[in-house]
Amino acid sequence: MGGVSSLRPPRRVNVWSGRAPSTAEVLVARSWPSDLALKQQMIDEVSACLVAGGYLESDDEPMLCICLDEAFANAIRHGNRQVVEKPVGISVGVDRERWFVVVDDEGEGFDPNAVPDPTTEAGLMAESGRGIRIMNAWLDQLAYYRDGRTILMARRRADRYSAPTSSEG
Fold first, then answer.
1. Quick check: 48 and 58 in contact, CB under 8 A?
2. Structural domains in the chain?
3. What is the pTM of this model?
4. Nearest-CA neighbor of 157 among 108, 98, 109, 103?
5. pLDDT of 89-120, one tens digit each?
6. Among candidates 119, 121, 145, 122, which has minimal Cα distance to 133?
7. How are beta strands 141-145 and 14-15 bridged, if at all?
8. Which pLDDT belongs to residue 168?
9. Cα angle value 118/99/101 (rounded, 5°)
10. How many CB atoms lie within 10 A of CB 35?
């Protein structure tokens, strides 16, 4: 079972100037207007694609939705400044081992490592930073491209692993 117990300690988030790498198989690729009213539809489309394809366990869907909510809200609010005409690009893909979600915005970019750590005294009262920390802890890979205008989120495919079983001794 996923959830909070599957979170790992935070690690540095890579930020690259180039484009995100492409995945072996693209399942969904589309653009959405930068409208927060559409955010839940965006989340539902991506999560339904990954669960229906067997790439994500249904127990992990709530954590995926948290990550998607954070990525989409950041792209709309901070990246595109809620200018509806500026699109948010979303691509969902898989390779042999992992699923990927790539979200692009047309903003100026940012350095996620410059966002205050929400577990420090300075970061406790900050209005942002918690989402990146949660995404970084749950995902197997969290990286930013195009100087922070593209986020790549990846995690192992549910159909490629079996959860460990506990043995009573």
1. no
2. 14-159 (3.30.565.10)
3. 0.85
4. 98
5. 999 999 999 999 999 999 999 988 888 777 77
6. 119
7. parallel
8. 45
9. 55
10. 15
